[in-house]
Amino acid sequence: MRKRCLGVTLAIALVAATVHPGLAQVNCDAVNKQLKLGRWAIDIADEMNLTLAQIRACEERAKAATTKHAPAAKTGTAPKGATPQAQGGQRK
């Protein structure tokens, strides 16, 4: 009787651990790759067994990462090879 009770408890714990979607780690790299390929978020969610909120969270993380690592625009510098007239300077 004790073994059966322990077995049922372990089975319930195993099922609860595998069914709960919040415990699963979302692979945002794969999600963002699919989004870049032009796939719809609803299709990705169905295929990867995710929610749309998880898809949006991955998309927002990717946008935040790209804006964080984007180089700041330098003001007051001319492009390479620009002439002094193009830079606004005067000839002597």
Structure description:
There is one protein chain. The model has no long low-confidence stretch (mean pLDDT 76). Helices cover 62% and strands 0% of the residues. It has a domain of 43 residues: Arc Repressor Mutant, subunit A. The chain has 92 residues and is mainly α. It is elongated.
**Secondary structure tally, helices:** 5
The assigned structural class equals: mainly alpha
**Ends apart, CA distance between termini:** 102 Å
State the CATH topology of the domain at 24-66: Arc Repressor Mutant, subunit A
Query: What level of helicity do the residues show?
Result: 55-70%
Order of helices and strands: HHHHH
Question: What structural keywords apply?
Answer:
92 residues, mainly alpha, Arc Repressor Mutant, subunit A, 5 helices
Task: Spell out the blueprint of helices and strands.
Blueprint: H1 2-19, H2 28-36, H3 41-48, H4 52-69, H5 84-87
Helix pairs in contact: 2-4, 3-4
